[in-house]
């Protein structure tokens, strides 16, 4: 079967390899070409590995305490998750990619779909090599690039680029005259959009790979999987059904939650934790031009507790807000409703709900906020955000956050914040 590569537009899926570990190796040259693993919140489990760590057959998801000694013996660098670093590197990556694309859809922290026009000879490999070189020179991160006619096939091309050594990290599926052998390499559960339940059903019907799904009876797919399944099949055939989504779908809620480094039993510790999460949630809202008109907070004990406890509290706001002071007052009041001293709390969280874009807000008649008050609030929050962004995330903050945080999440092996904190830029001796 010949792919439909006559169109001038192509879709590329850009994937940053081993992103968390690559970010750490990028800012610390001593880690390059060495095995590195990244731990989850509270230094619990291994969630990312460098290629060197993969070669040692270190398993994903394994609890750190089980392999701590063996990792030390193998000389593996173990690091706590540094989400501010990964977020900053992701922004830099996406900004660089924008200059080499017609349109870009940021799919995740380390992935993006890109639309690109093919040159006269249809060969996008020189473009892909240039992009890979640019990102490595600027960020020290290696990319895998899968190119095709549409998003589903671009995902498959990316998978092939990772697993075919001769591809050198680039694979253009649209330029393959007969792609049957390549589609046979992709099991149905690896097709983008196919979940576990659908995969099990397909395999029960004898459909085991992308080629067999592409050639499956269309009516049977529609009957079982509906229009979504039909679109996936159409894309496997080379048709374009899923557009690049430049505008992100608006979020329904923003949640900030963490597990504690050690259990909380005091109300003052709980209110401090919830206050810190509320401040972070407020910052996230403002960065996305959103305001919230409802807040939920929750706490729970460990899943392994002999005395399990889970409770939440909810408050509907009269006026939608992104003002940290207003949100803090609500969260601190709600915290008294969910606190009970007889339980050892292991996790808490804040959810900002009923989110609305600032452009479309309406004030409540019951508690109308004057334009002048609204302007003051906006100016204050902008000033705080601007100063924190320029100097340090905590250069201006609320007093409640400055007390000792004995409950704080364990991050005993946190790397430098040299890309986000001017005070942590390495010194060079000349």
UniProtKB/TrEMBL annotation:
<comment type="similarity">
    <text>Belongs to the DNA polymerase type-Y family.</text>
</comment>
<dbReference type="GO" id="GO:0003887">
    <property type="term" value="F:DNA-directed DNA polymerase activity"/>
</dbReference>
<feature type="domain" description="UmuC">
    <location>
        <begin position="11"/>
        <end position="195"/>
    </location>
</feature>
<dbReference type="Pfam" id="PF00817">
    <property type="entry name" value="IMS"/>
</dbReference>
<keyword id="KW-0227">DNA damage</keyword>
<dbReference type="Pfam" id="PF13438">
    <property type="entry name" value="DUF4113"/>
</dbReference>
<dbReference type="InterPro" id="IPR025188">
    <property type="entry name" value="DUF4113"/>
</dbReference>
<keyword id="KW-0741">SOS mutagenesis</keyword>
<dbReference type="GO" id="GO:0005829">
    <property type="term" value="C:cytosol"/>
</dbReference>
<dbReference type="GO" id="GO:0042276">
    <property type="term" value="P:error-prone translesion synthesis"/>
</dbReference>
<dbReference type="InterPro" id="IPR001126">
    <property type="entry name" value="UmuC"/>
</dbReference>
<dbReference type="InterPro" id="IPR050116">
    <property type="entry name" value="DNA_polymerase-Y"/>
</dbReference>
<dbReference type="InterPro" id="IPR043128">
    <property type="entry name" value="Rev_trsase/Diguanyl_cyclase"/>
</dbReference>
<dbReference type="InterPro" id="IPR017961">
    <property type="entry name" value="DNA_pol_Y-fam_little_finger"/>
</dbReference>
<dbReference type="InterPro" id="IPR043502">
    <property type="entry name" value="DNA/RNA_pol_sf"/>
</dbReference>
<dbReference type="GO" id="GO:0009432">
    <property type="term" value="P:SOS response"/>
</dbReference>
<dbReference type="Pfam" id="PF11799">
    <property type="entry name" value="IMS_C"/>
</dbReference>
<dbReference type="GO" id="GO:0006281">
    <property type="term" value="P:DNA repair"/>
</dbReference>
<protein>
    <submittedName>
        <fullName>Putative UmuC protein</fullName>
    </submittedName>
</protein>
<dbReference type="InterPro" id="IPR036775">
    <property type="entry name" value="DNA_pol_Y-fam_lit_finger_sf"/>
</dbReference>
<keyword id="KW-0742">SOS response</keyword>
<keyword id="KW-0234">DNA repair</keyword>
<dbReference type="GO" id="GO:0003684">
    <property type="term" value="F:damaged DNA binding"/>
</dbReference>
